[in-house]
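Structure (tokenized):
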């Protein structure tokens, strides 16, 4: 028979190919492809220029959230001041463009490079310490930079920021400029998503996840924990700097502290990543897009909340903060991981192959996780008892 003539290598290759094909054809990836196609055709389905501008800002905010998740979501080192890198990238590109006449094609890479260097300067000493001290350092660093911007206001524009630099795209019609910026933002968002997704699913990503779970165990295995932490920090800073440098050259971005450096920017990025799902990259990116889009929508509402007599547009951040606190209690891993697990469970039941909440097989008739765990322990004890009896015989 043909199957009997297959060598082990051939069988292994076939299984690997099937496994790869199965992974690519998994429902969540198919949904992702459909989502990308929907976003690609969005400018041609009657969406307004104003809505496209909001989506441009949402994509860049999603990049901010992914850059934060690359270090804080995977290594567990929480950064409260990631806006520092957005500002370094954005202000560097602006100053080089306005002051020295460099085109965005040169000023943006310079901004990325300086943001990565800032990541080294902050990350190397900060990541060699433990506990809350890293969070304190990342919290204070952007406050120091903001004070520098205010003191040297003639260079950095103070609290009002700088004039907008040269645009990425120029055209006679504003609608064409917006459409081109939309595709640039979408392409950059997907490129960063794929890059971080590949890195975090590689061996490096496994080490970063292991550091988050048990740093001492990783060190005991002979791996240099500080080296991996610094790598994640610099990678995150470079991507945040890239997003910030590109953002200031778009119609919705400008080099102002309120958009790039203020503490509220770092907090909003943190909230967006928690909503989507820390340590997932995809969840953080989608959470950033969702947060920016819905926050902008709420800010445009003139509805007054009854009883408290507060405008909905004034309470948007409060609403997100309360939603985040609720999610931390109810869904601590975020919405995206919960949606994936729920989808797998429903799909497994539809196929007659129930999947447990932990990804394993769900015991027949037992939907309660406690009952499932008890059943597994009972089966394991029965198996152990049978082995002992076999040895006695």
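Design, position by position:
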């Amino acid at each position: 028979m043909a199957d009997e003539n297959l060598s082990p290598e051939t069988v292994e290759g076939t299984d690997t190919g099937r496994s790869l094909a199965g992974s690519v054809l998994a429902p969540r990836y198919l949904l992702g492809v459909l989502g990308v196609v929907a976003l690609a055709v969005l400018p041609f389905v009657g969406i307004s220029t104003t809505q496209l501008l909001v989506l441009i800002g949402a994509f860049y905010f999603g990049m901010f959230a992914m850059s934060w998740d690359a270090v804080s979501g995977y290594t567990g080192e929480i950064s409260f001041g990631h806006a520092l890198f957005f500002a370094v990238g954005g202000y560097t590109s602006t100053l080089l463009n306005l002051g020295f006449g460099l085109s965005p094609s040169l000023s943006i890479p310079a901004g990325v490079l300086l943001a990565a260097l800032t990541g080294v300067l902050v990350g190397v000493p900060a990541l060699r310490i433990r506990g809350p001290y890293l969070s304190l350092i990342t919290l204070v660093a952007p406050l120091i930079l903001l004070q520098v911007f205010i003191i040297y206001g003639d260079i950095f524009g103070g609290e009002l920021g700088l004039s907008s630099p040269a645009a990425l795209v120029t055209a006679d019609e504003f609608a064409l400029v917006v459409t081109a910026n939309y595709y640039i933002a979408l392409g950059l968002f997907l490129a960063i998503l794929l890059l971080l997704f590949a890195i975090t699913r590689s061996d490096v990503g496994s080490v970063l996840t292991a550091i988050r779970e048990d740093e001492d165990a990783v060190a005991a295995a002979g791996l240099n924990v500080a080296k991996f932490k610094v790598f994640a920090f610099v990678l995150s800073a470079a991507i945040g700097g890239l997003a910030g440098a590109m953002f200031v050259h778009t119609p919705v971005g400008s080099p102002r502290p309120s958009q790039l450096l203020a503490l509220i920017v770092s907090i909003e990025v943190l909230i967006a990543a928690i909503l989507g799902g820390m340590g997932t990259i995809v969840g953080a990116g989608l959470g950033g897009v969702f947060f920016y889009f819905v926050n902008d929508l709420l800010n445009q509402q003139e509805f007054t909340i009854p009883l408290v007599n507060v405008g909905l547009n004034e309470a948007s951040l409060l609403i997100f903060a309360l939603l985040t606190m609720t999610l931390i209690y109810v869904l601590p891993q975020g919405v995206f991981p919960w949606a994936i697990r729920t989808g797998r469970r429903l799909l497994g039941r539809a196929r007659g192959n129930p999947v447990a909440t932990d990804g394993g097989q769900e015991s027949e008739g037992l939907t309660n996780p406690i009952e499932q765990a008890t059943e597994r322990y009972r089966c394991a004890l029965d198996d152990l008892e049978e082995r002992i009896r076999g040895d006695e015989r």
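Reviewer-requested clarification: The two ends are 41 Å apart (CA to CA). The longest helix spans residues 49-75.
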